[in-house]
Amino acid sequence: MSRMRKIILRCMLATIAASLAAWVTFSGCVSDRPLRVVLDPDVVVPDNCAMILFVDGMDQPRTRELLARGALPHIREHFVERGVEVENAIVSLPPTTYPNAVSLLTGRLPGHHGILGNQWYDRDTMLFCNYGTSESYRSVNEHFTSPTLYDLLADELTVNVQCHTSRGATHSIDNVNMSAIKWFLGWYEGYDRRTGLSVEEVAEIANREKRWPIVTMLYFPGLDEVGHACGVETERYAGAMRTVDAQIGRVMSALERAGIRRRTYFALVTDHGHVQTSPQRTFELIRWLREQRGLRVRDLLSHDEDDVEPLKRLEHVDAVALDGAYRRAVIHVPGPGGWREQPSLEAVMRIVAGSDTAPGPPLFECHGVGLVCVRGADASVLVFSPAGQAVIERRFVEGAPQYRVAAPPDGPEAREVGDPLGYRQDPSLSAFVDAGWHPSREWLTATATSRYPDFVPQIVEMFESPRAGDIVVFADEGWTFRHGEQGGHGSALCTDVRVSMYFAGPDVPQGAKLPCARLVDVMPTVMSMLGRADRLSAAGPLDGMDLFATIRAAGTTVP
Q1: Taking the complete model, does pTM exceed 0.85, yes or no?
Q2: By CB atoms within 10 Å of each CB, which of 330, 403, 434, 533 scores lowest?
């Protein structure tokens, strides 16, 4: 193409973009009007229905700061003052969107439902999947088999608005063309406004079906994109939070006018926190693996692979590495007979700790690395950090799992007294760890306020899936493994996994609090709110718990 043609093309694209921007801005202003939710007289509203407000990337500290400033009046009114807050809500490892969206809808941890990241590699099938494109983002529904909330309510009307994970929903409102324009222009707040406006489309579906949906999912993805692009500490992120808050207010008002709200239970949830990052706090892991360990690494972090394709030509590759949100990296290593075999622990440890042929520093001592986790034998995980090393083990007692943190086997004295998770800095938590084996929920309760909340049971269950990798590296505070955005997530730190979670509804106490819960608890709790808890047995074994009775019994903390 000639230089003149390139100039003309650029001018044309700039003109089109400006026109689209003006149109999107106008449509955004129009979308701020009160919502029109008018149901025909013959539309049946269930006695109990539920609405899940799924706000992607709603950082807990920033949310609480804005609430304290009075900047989120609708969340304060409808959830803080008129609902129950989970003070320490913990998402699933890894704390990225697709694993937690599936956990939210299935009540299962990622190691059990099989979605181990926004990208993952499966050594058994040689399949690589990347959900980060417009062609592939909804293919997640094909890659897990656990029943969803929608599947359990297959005989009822259910509606999903904007969420990529929607398998089993009766209707899914995606608004693909309009959303793509806003995404292209970087107008992510407009995407969240569109989610609020889509409640009118839900009413249209109800009028056609002659029944209001028993479950409606409203997914707000724009806030997360603002967090990545600008950082959670910026005014634009605060403005995007106010946009979400305004949509929640509009939805609540519309449901109140339509007479639906008094029959509706609400869950306000998210999938991960957000961490401000910078180029100065970047540890280039792939480069380190190549230079310090001499590995031939197939780098899937760069998003340059096909979306879903069996990886070929791996016979001359020493490792496959990938990530989905910059603060967690997954490394797969071939076994002695190739990629379909598990590697030996010795081969993995040569990468983690070094060897005579690669005498560089241990990976877990590199600046910017928080934790290094290695798949061990018999459902154990080896954990390394600059503060020490340990092994996390699992056993079953009468069919229920228990976990403990133990010293690594056959290690020198310095390794035996290590505290990689920092649990021994708290005397009460140190005594809990020293007591040995504990059930999963006891670990959640004991560690919910720690630097690594709920880590012990979750890391073991994460490695249940072959898609988890052989080595998982979690970034330290404020660090990233590949800079290109101002914010990220994916580490096992409290900043990434401890999130906001609220419940509200007809018989939910006002202004009450629960000390801790998991995101996987939402699905069974919603089923119980709907009076459909008897259907949970069809979902098979769940990691989540029904919290409805606990929520209703929560003591109020305000008059």
Answers
A1: yes
A2: 434
